Structures are given as C-alpha cells and as structure tokens.
C-alpha cells in the first residue's frame, strides 16, 4: 500500500468565475507610450538621421528615409522624443506601471 497526498473532495473546491465583472472592464485601460531614442555616437559619426518625428506628445511621423518604408502617422497615449530625459520617461511613463506591478497588477514596458 502506497501513501498518497490528501485529496480535497470536488464539492469543496471553489472555482473562480471565468468572466470579468462589467465594472472592472470599464476601469481597465491599456496605455501605450513610445520613446524615440537618441542616435548613438556611432550613428552620429555616420551622419545617420532620426527616422521619426514627434510633432506633439501623442504623434509619431515616419520620415520615410527610403522607398521601402511607407510614410505614416501613428498616435499613442504618450510619445517621448529623443531629447526627453530618462527621469521624465520614468515619471510620466514607467512609474505607474512599476507601482502597479508592485501592487499585483500586470504591466509591461
């Protein structure tokens, strides 16, 4: 006779609902932030150009540097341009995600 772990009877196992309450759906929101990185020293030495313009805090525009890239305008919740400091990106973009993750809410960056 072999020993086995205790088993919980099926009638005592509680299952959680598989649906999300309607109220929670209205409160959850996915925010998308983008940062245009500055050129590296190597890129600057090669006279490379930045491929994106950010005319405002929510828009990115492709500069269409070659024929294979389609010119396009894209809208996000927040756009940080290449002159933006790491502190500003953290304060306005990543800080809330970090604190949410600490409090058990999923977040990606």
UniProtKB/TrEMBL annotation:
Start and end residues of each stretch annotated as Disordered: 1-26
Record key words, sorted: Motor protein
SUPFAM superfamilies (UniProt xref): P-loop containing nucleoside triphosphate hydrolases (SSF52540)
Boundaries of every Kinesin motor domain copy: 29-109
Keyword presence, Iron: no
GO molecular function, one term: ATP binding
Domain of life: Eukaryota
InterPro entries: Kinesin-like_fam (IPR027640), Kinesin_motor_dom (IPR001752), Kinesin_motor_dom_sf (IPR036961), P-loop_NTPase (IPR027417)
Gene3D superfamilies with a match to the protein in the record: Kinesin motor domain (3.40.850.10)
Ribonucleoprotein listed as a keyword: no
Biological process terms in GO annotation: microtubule-based movement
Family statement drawn from the similarity comment of this UniProt entry: Belongs to the TRAFAC class myosin-kinesin ATPase superfamily. Kinesin family.
Name of the featured protein: Kinesin-like protein NACK2
Organism: Artemisia annua (Sweet wormwood)
């Amino acid at each position: 006779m072999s020993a086995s772990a205790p088993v919980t009877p099926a009638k005592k196992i509680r299952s959680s609902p598989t649906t999300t309450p309607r109220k929670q759906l209205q409160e959850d929101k996915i925010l998308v932030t983008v940062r245009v990185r500055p050129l590296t020293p190597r890129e600057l030495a090669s006279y490379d150009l930045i491929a994106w313009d950010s005319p405002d805090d929510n828009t990115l525009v492709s500069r269409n540097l070659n024929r294979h890239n389609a010119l396009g305008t894209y809208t996000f919740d927040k756009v940080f341009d290449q002159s933006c400091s790491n502190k500003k990106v953290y304060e306005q973009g990543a800080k809330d995600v970090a604190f949410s993750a600490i409090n058990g809410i999923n977040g990606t960056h």
